[in-house]
Amino acid sequence: KLQGTPCKLKRVVWVLHIILILDHFTTRLLSSCCKMSDLMSEGITIVEDLHKNREPVPEMKAIYFMRPTAMCIDAFINDFKPKPKYKAAYVFFTDYCPDDLFDKMKKSCAKHIKVCKEINISFLPLEAQVFSCDNAEAFKSIYTPNSQDRDQTLETIADQIVTLCATLDEYPGVRFKKYSQPKLAELVDNKLARHYELDDNSKKKGKTQAQLLIVDRALDPVSPILHELTYQAMAFDLIPIKDNAYEYKLKDGSKKEALLTEEDELWVKLRHMHIAEVTGQIPKLVKEISASRGEKKQSDEKISIGGLSQLMKKMPAFRKQVTQKTVHICLAEDLMSRYQKNVEKLCKAEQDLAVGADAEGQKVKDPMRTLLPVLLHPHDTTDKIRAVLLYIFSLNGTTAENLNKLIQHVKIEDERGYILNWEHLGVPILSTPSMYSFRKQSRRDRSDEETYKVSRWTPIIKDVMEDAVENKLEVKDWPYQSECPSAWNGSRAVSARQKHKGSSPDDLRSGLRLILFVLGGVTYSEMRCAYEVTHANKSCEVIIGSTHILTPRSLLEDIYKLGKQPMESFTIEEDNP
């Protein structure tokens, strides 16, 4: 599992009483899977920033955990020129260090380096089944027209994907969505082959029971735009949460901050539930907190000297449980307040446009009639942009005349890039005669699945996951970049071929593994799908990752920054009546 990464990192930290020096990326990497107490237990006494001025400590040794970039190498060399800041250096790179940078470091300060190793962890393990390259800037590099650094960005991403596979000890077969990013699939496959050319026993490593699918953000433009009503996705959409930190207010007016991470067991339990189910848990949580406080009061009155020690040992765990429950009571109430105030009025229209049918299953014949109430209501501009985009996506592009009217209605004449720039991703905005024959991706039949009326849409990537697990991906739509293991080449479901004994993390590791990489950002709803498909098909673990994690608002800003359309370049000829 990705959250097993700390074990690998701990093996790096093996010298007692030492300084750990990190760059920006490795700081985030360690923060995603280790606590300071974990580092201290391994002998780390000080953690420093590689790029900041630091006082020399010549009697101490230093571990450098950094990316193999020119900036990091230069900063490292400066620590030992002209006079060394530390007694010795133990250098660990996140991934492969280019020969020119390695030679530069060796020539400058080889005598100070006691260890130099590449440990292949150039990604952030955000959750048990989710990873990120932590590279939001890649979006601009990849999708900006005539980008000068697209190829270099793809090279970097490919290196990061290879380190993920190496950490998981997987050599997967590689497939990609046709017409998306074949270049990235080719890079990853070639780099995997080089990485596994020889193992520790000087033998070539064969393919493992894993498959890597590479998809592009254009595969599903709908999921990142919809108002998703599961707990985690809803929280990151409606509340300004930065670096997983949620600020909430208590009844006495004081403000507190909580981290929404896997350390919070209640968060892990609730995050993929629909908000209706979460709010159903609130009375139970309130009752448990009240009961716990009552028990504590009684124990305080009856406490004996002999029981004091046991009580003190239980107090941290008690406080932690009460705090977690308080956090999620506040968060759920906050979300419901925002939902009832504004989002509730949007959801039905959004779902009808996305699904193409209403809650009763009747086909939406006139999408404009569905959109119009949203445009007439005083929603904020961003919500109206989201609704307009869903309308355009439902039609697979609209006429120039209609688009102009929509832009004027939302009052974004000078900010039309929020809509027009989707074409840089390959998403049709303006319809053309040749596009009338464009066939939308067929969807799996989910009519038998129970859903909420305001949550009928299923991310397309869940269809992809399920089709992959059942070996139903069409080769014409999903070409092979390299041969996949025999388990993925059959014609029937993986689950029928793989006998599975249990569903614990250890059991899952012994089965098949499907890795999906979404170039251009992954949504929280798509992350949820990885867990759902894994749970439903216990013979196959699904891991999902991307260049970065996105929210609807962050994606719209990224789209807008791809290039503002000058007014004169957007000359539209109106259709003839």
UniProtKB/TrEMBL annotation:
One of its GO terms (biological process) is vesicle-mediated transport. Belongs to the STXBP/unc-18/SEC1 family. The keyword Aminoacyl-tRNA synthetase does not apply. Keywords: Protein transport, Signal, Transport. The keyword Chloroplast does not apply. InterPro entries: Sec-1-like_dom1, Sec-1-like_dom3a, Sec1-like, Sec1-like_dom2, Sec1-like_sf. This is Syntaxin-binding protein 3-like. Residues 1-31 form the signal peptide. It comes from Sinocyclocheilus rhinocerous. SUPFAM superfamilies: Sec1/munc18-like (SM) proteins.
